[in-house]
Design a protein that fits this description.
The complex is a heterodimer of chains A (about 270) and B (about 300).
Chain A: H1 5-19, H2 22-40, H3 53-76, H4 81-86, H5 89-93, H6 99-129, H7 135-165, H8 169-198, H9 203-210, H10 214-223, H11 227-233, H12 241-244, H13 246-270
Chain B: E1 2-11, E2 14-24, E3 29-34, H1 40-48, E4 55-60, E5 63-64, H2 70-75, E6 77-80, H3 92-103, H4 110-116, H5 132-144, E7 150-154, H6 162-177, E8 181-185, H7 189-193, E9 198-203, E10 206-211, H8 213-220, E11 224-230, H9 235-245, E12 250-252, E13 255-260, H10 265-272, E14 279-285, H11 289-307
Parallel strand pairs in B: 3-8, 3-9, 6-7, 7-8
Antiparallel strand pairs in B: 1-2, 1-4, 4-5, 9-10, 11-13, 11-14, 12-13
Chain lengths: ~270, ~300
């Protein structure tokens, strides 16, 4: 039985991450954070214990929005430039597969590892909380996991673009950290600053700009999935409905997955 | 059979491979010689289709390697890169299985190959624990996967001990017997000159010379060195006889040494015959490939000097 070279590459990438315990470590991290937030999140209101799915997801979103992009970038930045620098890329490229297949195989393998860790970690936490979740809450929790995966895939795609475009590993790691900083921390601050300076007149522009950042798309996906959360954030009125429709948001997220990968493919094929 | 027709490839302003044409027949063992940066590795990458030639064409069994059937072409080529790097976290069996899957070769081919290159006992060990020579053997086993028709081996014996080199050529000979074409590069000239059928010398991306060792040696007519070993008391007599026959020689502690043209060997022996009793030994030192190579190098340097 022979499998397509693309799948052979994907299987190796995923298996490597399972064998070096990367998947396990990230899954444990996610499970612990999710359980801690579920149990101790409401402590500021003087309560201990699970207080419902909406506040739990709200806190998880704030955590995942920092953590998952960083994890995805670290997972992917080395994948091409690392093999190039160590010297194993030459032999790999001489195999019967195209550069595009090699890149896509690596992406799929790493995405599978990220999926195992994310679904495993949050899944275990969800299983522990299951007795306290009704169908509606479970559905929202599942939605949160799917949106977290999309966020991870988008940053993994950016990580591969960095990996293909960088000449050295050290530069790639620098670029990955800089990108994380820019999209996760600086971007929102700039938007807030702009809103304060320009006022309400161009509110629609800021709403549209939020779509330019996969981290913000992830936040909106979770906020606008629950009316309770919308009122928490008081954001519902600031943005036009069409922009915040889950289908629009998911489409934007898919574009964030496909575009960097496509550009990486073009760059890699030319090298 | 692989054919290169006027292949050129430049990197920026530098012509890494310049108008290289050569044909290597099935079952032939072909050597590529050149200094670092002469274009050997670039030529390998062109033959693999990893790099596209700027002009010229490369045919494998009459079909251009850059056509639609590139996957098929790759499966028929075994490649061992210079200083092969494998994955430290995998065992030898896993490494070979990975490349076998990529090439679409049945996994049952792996264990016999590991045995053939002498790694059967270390098959379960992580490559990270391997010595340079063992990695090279594993890389070679990878190149042999799927019984390729063409083996491209870039400095294949680096890091191998004498026994490893011997094993390597034994395996190469066995593959050749089955019609496999082998192209290898080396900087250890003495090692390959006894073994290759033909060789090509690359200098500055150009083919400086191509042919068998004998053809190349004859082509530039390097003198044969002769050493006459005899007791010091006979040196003057010998030198006088040689001078009478028209040979100039130098006196060394152990005897005399001189350099003669190939066709003068017989005349020298005739001149020495009457004095045979005084000679402890006569040594003819044929020009080595290294000398041939250096000769070509001087010639090509001379050429560029003249044309500049």
């Amino acid at each position: 039985m022979t499998s397509h070279p693309l799948l052979v590459i994907a299987a190796k990438e995923c298996r490597d991450r399972i064998r070096n315990r990367w998947v396990l470590a990230v899954a444990v991290l996610f499970a612990l954070f999710a359980l801690a937030i579920a149990c101790f999140g409401p402590a500021q209101q003087g309560l201990v214990g699970f207080q419902g799915i909406a506040p739990t997801i709200a806190s998880l979103v704030s955590l995942v929005i920092y953590l998952l992009p960083l994890i995805a970038l670290i997972l992917g930045f080395d994948s091409v430039v690392g093999e190039r620098e160590r010297g194993s890329l030459d032999l790999l490229l001489s195999m019967p597969l195209t550069r595009g297949e090699l890149l896509l195989g690596k992406y799929l393998g790493l995405a599978a590892a990220l999926t195992l860790a994310t679904v495993g970690g949050f899944g275990v936490a969800g299983a522990v909380l299951a007795p306290q979740l009704d169908a509606y809450a479970a559905w929202h929790y599942a939605g949160f996991i799917v949106s977290a995966l999309l966020l991870g895939y988008a940053f993994l795609s950016l990580a591969l673009l960095i990996s293909v475009a960088s000449r050295e590993r050290t530069r790639a790691s620098g670029a990955a950290i800089a990108l994380w900083f820019a999209l996760v921390l600086v971007f929102d601050l700039l938007l807030l600053g702009g809103m304060v300076l320009l006022g309400d007149t161009v509110g629609w522009l800021f709403g549209a700009l939020l779509l330019v950042n996969p981290a913000d798309v992830f936040r909106m996906l979770n906020i606008f999935s629950s009316e309770q959360l919308q009122s928490y954030y008081g954001l519902a009125t600031a943005l036009p409905g069409a922009l915040t429709h889950p289908v629009t948001l998911c489409a934007v997220m898919l574009a964030w997955i496909a575009l960097p990968l496509a550009i990486a493919g073009r760059l890699f094929a030319r090298a | 059979m692989i054919e290169l027709h006027a292949v050129c490839r430049r990197f920026g302003a530098q012509l890494a491979v310049n108008q290289v044409s050569l044909t290597v027949a099935p079952g032939e063992l072909f050597g590529l010689i050149g200094h670092n940066g002469a274009g050997k590795s670039t030529l390998f990458k062109l033959m693999l289709g990893l790099l596209a030639p700027d002009s010229g064409d490369i045919l494998l069994d009459g079909v251009s390697i850059r056509g639609a059937s590139f996957r098929d072409v790759r499966r028929r080529i075994g490649y061992l890169p210079e200083n092969v790097v494998l994955y430290d976290n995998l065992s030898a069996s896993e490494t070979l299985a990975f490349y076998a899957r990529l090439k679409g070769v049945p996994l049952t081919a792996c264990a016999p190959l590991l045995a053939e290159v002498g790694l059967a006992d270390a098959a379960a060990r992580r490559v990270g624990t391997y010595s340079k020579g063992m990695r090279q053997r594993l890389g070679f086993a990878q190149a042999l996967l799927g019984s390729p028709q063409l083996l491209l081996l870039d400095e294949p014996t680096t890091g191998l001990d004498p026994e490893g080199i011997h094993d390597f050529y034994r395996i190469v000979e066995a593959r050749r017997a089955h019609g496999c074409t082998v192209i290898l590069s080396s900087h250890i000239l003495a090692e390959i000159e006894q073994r290759v059928d033909r060789l090509a010398m690359l200098a500055g991306g150009k083919l400086a010379a191509i042919g068998s060792v004998a053809e190349l040696s004859a082509g530039i007519a390097l003198p044969v060195a002769v050493e006459l070993v005899s007791a010091a008391t006979h040196h003057d007599t010998l030198a006088a006889s040689l001078a009478a026959a028209g040979f100039a020689c130098q006196t060394k502690p152990h005897g005399l040494s001189l350099a003669i043209a190939r066709h003068d060997k017989g005349r020298l022996l005739a001149a020495l015959a009457p004095l045979a009793a005084t000679l402890a030994d006569v040594r003819f030192i044929e020009p080595t490939l290294e000398a041939v190579f250096l000769g070509h190098r001087h010639a090509s340097i001379h050429d560029t000097g003249a044309s500049a």
